[in-house]
Amino acid sequence: MPRIHAVFPVAALAIGAMMVLTAHAEDKIARSLAATCTGCHGTSGVSQGGIPSIAGVEKERILTLLKEFRDGKRPATVMHQHSKGYTDEQLEAIAGWFAAQKAK
């Protein structure tokens, strides 16, 4: 039996490492998707002009707006076209990434 107990810490470390790697990969994907927004909304979502900053805005708020733009429920100039190119999961990743950024 002692050998079985020795496996548990090793398995726990392996699972933890996999979770960290998965989270890191998901963050990289979200950051890459969000990069398409920075041309208008600024680096990390902090706008320098008349376009709204989205850094630090609540994830659900950003997600709701993106879906409203995509579905034509909210008036916009170019956001309809931008948002139509993403799945719900991709929009959620983008919203989460900008929500995690610090508003300056």
Question: Which key features would you list for this structure?
Answer:
single chain; mainly alpha; Cytochrome Bc1 Complex, Chain D, domain 2
Explain the overall architecture.
The protein has helices at 2-34, 38-41, 59-70, 79-83, 88-99. The longest helix has 33 residues, at 2-34. The chain has one domain (2-99): Cytochrome c-like domain (Cytochrome Bc1 Complex, Chain D, domain 2, Orthogonal Bundle). Helices cover 63% and strands 0% of the residues. It is mostly helical. The mean pLDDT is 84. α1 (2-34) crosses α5 (88-99). It contains 5 helices and no strands.
Number of strands: 0
Provide mean pLDDT, rounded. Answer: 84
Question: At CATH's second level, what is the architecture?
Answer: Orthogonal Bundle
- Range of helix content: 55-70%
SS summary, helix count: 5
Classify the fold: give the CATH topology.
Cytochrome Bc1 Complex, Chain D, domain 2
Number of domain modules: 1
Sheet with the most strands, sense and barrel status: none
pLDDT < 50 stretches: none
Structural class of the secondary structure composition?
mainly alpha
N- and C-termini, Cα separation:
56 Å
What is the gyration radius calculated from CA atoms?
19 Å
CATH superfamily: Cytochrome c-like domain
H/E order of the elements?
A: HHHHH
| Amount of beta strand | under 5%
For this structure, what is the CATH class? Mainly Alpha
